């Protein structure tokens, strides 16, 4: 259910002190979604925002070095000497991390320097400099076979080795400008002994930085508290500068709040002498009104999927969470459709949940539900890791519905069932719209669409599956088209509304036809999952396992093959399971997911 919202205009004295104090009280209420008149801009916002980013960065750095006072790496005496002032602490962490990253880059450069000697041998760089002083210039090159032939007439070079299929060439130049048209290898910056010493020094300083950051991690709580205060200040400033001056004495803000919170707002307003106007949003403001929906606890499990996809119904649209949850669960079961895979997903979810100490989370609840759905559909279809032999085990065989069976089932029946599911799914969308218009004749137009959907279902069965047309199909179309034409549009001009409905009807019927056919993807993708699993089984053990090597190979193929198949099945759920809800069903329920998420201005006390 989408909660009814009220529009609020809040008037406060134009005094910085009063504004901050009153907005802090409003933030502690935590129920008003602010709709800014303009993008909040001010130098103080940028300053606090920069501070917040620095604190977050410092906390993230310390997360990598978390330790305990009992760890031998931490010198508690040193901790006591470290400043506990947040500014100095922040500066120390950021500067140490910067030094650490610079040292890592320097180490990489030094290692490249050392690798040069592995490729070209231990060469004394001072000898090169001495030869240059005496007019002898040594140059090093890399050349492939083709380039080598091009310089074969030269007598001033020697091939000293090979590196990655390229010839290593030493060229003795007569003067500083004489060069070969090849890839020249520059001399290293340091000699071998020198670079080894520098690497050792570098690693020692890196260790010091790591130890210091590990020690500083014990003071992370100081930064966490500072971040909470700065974040609160930032939120407050953003709201402060999103208001608008009414005159020199009054500033006002616009926002939206749940109808059930109005009494609390009025009480605060009267206690603090605020001016306010509370009213229903205008029709032209509905795009701005945030969406807050409350649904049954079991349907809240779908929130992670909707949040991941960024799906927020508009304020005037339907709450589709319950239908989304029911059919998404059902679609997931069909698309994956293997009880063995469902068991694997269930075990993985359990193990991760146990690692999280069984923390209460709707994400885990959703995964348990989807895993169970996959297992149930897999049991009904007799699918266990794509193995027909497992499906024929006596106990499992009795649980299988023969017409749905992956091995030897009735494919026409299964496809027909998918179309039934599709017609039902789309019909629910129109029935929800009919309920929404229960005080209007538009409800009859939506019921007309239900008749058309089931008429289209009959046409799809005939054209796609070759089934005999049902006698009721023409009557469903006649009834549905009449109701849509007569009742879809309301207004002063009845005939104009009817003609408008009839004009849009052909294209809408074609779209409805394609929407029902879209549900065949449930059958097709589910079948492909089974076929891939079967193929991997045949690849692994089709010819039998006769040796240890063949046994190991079979295990590797089974693990990698089924692992890949489960990943692809999971992707299919995100693509097809979400799509059928987000496009086909939502289109028939007139849900465009154009809403704004309800984000109240909330400050911790």
Write up what this structure looks like.
The protein is of the alpha+beta class. It has a domain at 125-190. Helices cover 61% and strands 9% of the residues. The chain contains 21 helices and 11 strands. Residues 79-113 form a coiled coil. It is a multi-pass membrane protein. Keywords: Coiled coil, Ion transport, Membrane, Transmembrane, Transmembrane helix, Transport.
Q: Biggest sheet: strands, sense, closure?
A: 5 strands, antiparallel
Helix content: 55-70%
> Which regions are unreliable across 5 or more consecutive residues at pLDDT < 50?
none
| Structural class determined from secondary elements | alpha+beta
The tally of beta strands, per DSSP, is 11
Q: N-to-C terminal Cα separation, in Å?
A: 30 Å
The radius of gyration is 36 Å
Question: What number is the mean pLDDT?
Answer: 88
Beta percentage is 5-15%
Number of helices: 21
Shape field: extended
Chain-wise SSE layout:
Blueprint: E1 5-13, H1 16-29, E2 33-34, H2 43-63, H3 76-81, H4 86-120, H5 125-133, E3 137-143, H6 145-150, E4 157-163, E5 166-173, E6 183-185, H7 192-216, H8 220-240, E7 244-245, E8 250-258, H9 262-271, E9 275-279, E10 290-291, H10 303-309, H11 321-336, H12 339-355, H13 362-381, H14 388-391, H15 394-399, H16 411-436, H17 442-465, H18 472-487, H19 494-517, H20 520-541, H21 548-588, E11 596-597
Parallel strand pairs: 10-11
Antiparallel strand pairs: 1-8, 1-9, 2-8, 3-5, 3-6, 4-5, 7-8
């Amino acid at each position: 259910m989408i909660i009814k919202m009220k529009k609020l205009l809040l008037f406060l004295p134009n005094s910085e002190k009063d504004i901050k104090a009153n907005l802090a009280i409003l933030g502690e209420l935590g129920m008003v979604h602010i709709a800014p008149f303009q993008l909040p801009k001010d130098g103080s916002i940028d300053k606090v925002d920069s501070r917040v980013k620095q604190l977050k960065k410092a906390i993230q750095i310390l997360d990598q070095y978390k330790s305990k006072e009992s760890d031998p790496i931490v010198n508690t005496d040193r901790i006591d000497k470290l400043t506990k002032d947040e500014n100095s602490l922040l500066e120390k962490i950021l500067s140490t991390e910067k030094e650490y990253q610079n040292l890592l880059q320097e180490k990489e450069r030094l290692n490249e320097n050392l690798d040069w000697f592995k490729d070209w041998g231990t060469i004394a760089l001072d000898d090169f400099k001495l030869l240059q002083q005496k007019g002898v210039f040594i140059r090093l090159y890399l050349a492939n076979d083709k380039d080598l032939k091009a310089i074969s007439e030269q007598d001033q070079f020697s091939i000293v080795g090979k590196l990655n299929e390229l010839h290593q060439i030493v060229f003795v130049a007569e003067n500083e400008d004489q060069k070969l048209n090849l890839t020249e290898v520059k001399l290293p910056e340091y000699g071998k002994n020198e670079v080894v010493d520098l690497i050792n020094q570098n690693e020692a300083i890196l260790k010091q930085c790591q130890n210091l950051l590990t020690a500083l991690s014990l003071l992370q709580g100081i930064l966490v508290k500072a971040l909470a205060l700065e974040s609160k200040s930032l939120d407050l400033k953003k709201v402060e500068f999103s208001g608008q001056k009414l005159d020199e004495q009054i500033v006002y803000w616009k926002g939206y709040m749940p109808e059930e919170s109005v009494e609390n707002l009025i009480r605060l307003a009267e206690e603090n002498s605020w001016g306010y106007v509370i009213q229903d949003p205008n029709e032209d403001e509905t795009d701005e009104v945030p969406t807050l929906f409350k649904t049954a606890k079991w349907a809240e499990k779908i929130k992670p999927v909707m949040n991941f996809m960024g799906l927020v119904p508009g304020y005037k649209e339907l709450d589709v969470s319950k239908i989304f949850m029911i059919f998404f669960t059902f679609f997931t079961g069909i698309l994956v459709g293997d009880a063995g895979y469902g068991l694997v997903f269930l075990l993985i979810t359990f193990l991760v949940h146990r690692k999280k100490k069984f923390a209460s989370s709707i994400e885990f609840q959703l995964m348990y539900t989807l895993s169970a759905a996959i297992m149930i559909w897999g049991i009904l279809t007799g699918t266990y890791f794509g193995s027909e032999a497992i499906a024929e085990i006596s106990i499992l065989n009795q649980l299988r519905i023969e017409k749905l069976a992956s091995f030897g089932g009735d494919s026409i029946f299964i496809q027909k069932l998918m179309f039934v599911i599709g017609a039902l799914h789309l019909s629910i969308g129109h029935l929800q719209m009919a309920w929404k218009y229960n005080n209007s004749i538009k409800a009859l137009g939506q019921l007309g669409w239900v008749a058309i959907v089931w008429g289209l279902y009959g046409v799809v069965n005939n054209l796609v599956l070759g089934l005999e047309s049902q006698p009721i199909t023409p009557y469903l179309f006649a009834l549905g088209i009449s109701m849509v034409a007569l009742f879809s549009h309301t207004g002063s001009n009845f005939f104009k509304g009817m003609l408008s409905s009839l004009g849009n009807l052909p294209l809408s019927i074609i779209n409805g036809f394609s929407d029902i056919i879209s549900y065949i993807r449930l059958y097709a993708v589910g079948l492909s999952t089974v076929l891939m699993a079967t193929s991997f089984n045949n690849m692994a053990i089709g010819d039998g396992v006769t040796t240890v090597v063949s046994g190991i190979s079979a295990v590797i193929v089974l693990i990698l093959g089924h692992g890949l198949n489960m990943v692809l099945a999971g992707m299919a759920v995100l693509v097809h399971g979400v799509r059928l809800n987000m496009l086909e069903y939502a289109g028939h329920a007139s849900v465009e997911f154009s809403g704004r998420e309800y984000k109240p201005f909330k400050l911790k006390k």
